[in-house]
Amino acid sequence: MLNKKIAYQGIPGAFSWLAGIKFFGKRNKFISVNEFKKIFELVVNKKADYGVVPIENTLAGSIYENYDHLNIYDIKIYGEINLKIEHHLLGIKSNFPFSKRIKLIKKVFSHPKALEQCQKFFEKYPWIEKVSYKDTAASARYVSELKDISLGSIASKEAAKIYGLEIIKKNIEDDKNNFTRFLIISRKENKSLKRLNKGSLIFYLPHIPGSLYKSLKPFAENSINLTKIESRPIKGKPFEYVFYIDFVFSKKELNSVLDALKEFKNLVKKFKFLGFYSIN
Predict the structure, then answer these.
(1) Domain for residue 49, yes or no?
(2) pLDDT tens, 213-257?
(3) What domain range is 47 assigned to?
(4) What is the distance between the alpha carbons of residues 2 and 4, in angstroms, rounded to a whole number?
(5) Total domain count for the chain?
(6) Can you tell me the distance from the alpha carbon of 94 to that of 98, in angstroms, rounded to the nearest whole number?
(7) What is the CATH number of the domain that holds 54?
């Protein structure tokens, strides 16, 4: 895809930006915003063609805010991309060996989740103070601007390149199997029939025993694999929930999926189909 307008949260070098580059390529216009809600607003109001939103991390879990936005805004899921999250310790450039350089670091800035995911690093170097910042790439830019050798940032290697920092120590994350799943949102559905292999939907149920079991039964009977089910509270209705599900399928199973959806629609109170798309 070329010459598209793509909204994401953060600044260049952020993981959402990297996911957007990986999905769309660099030859597009990337629109930086400071909160997830604005991504949805830009897409709905035709100020952006697509949006890149994180929905789930293998360590931190679901990003509930974005599940709620999927329900509120009139959008479709166009695609999905999984990004490996690698955290690096960055700082202003020097000619010092690591043994000396690390002793000079007194404070490290980053997003709270990034700091949390590098706990073993901070245990090994207890003199370093963790300082929460709005996002990883912004913390790299902040350290670059201050030009203080005692300050560090946890961010991506791309952020180091963009903001002229050196990588003091690579891959300081506790768990190497750290991935974030991003959704590509759009006003339109993905029509690439040859590549579609996943679907998502939101639904409301009657508040009666067995309603969730009955609603999901058509998927089981048609051998459709559900990969995710998430519940979110309904505002104004204490202890009642709206549900979000993902399912995967092969091309030959598409008719079975359509049969399951047809039956499913008659078993739920309210239904919002978010679209078929492909996993990248």
Answers:
(1) yes
(2) 999 999 999 999 999 999 999 988 888 899 999 999 998 898 999
(3) 5-84+178-186
(4) 6
(5) 3
(6) 10
(7) 3.40.190.10
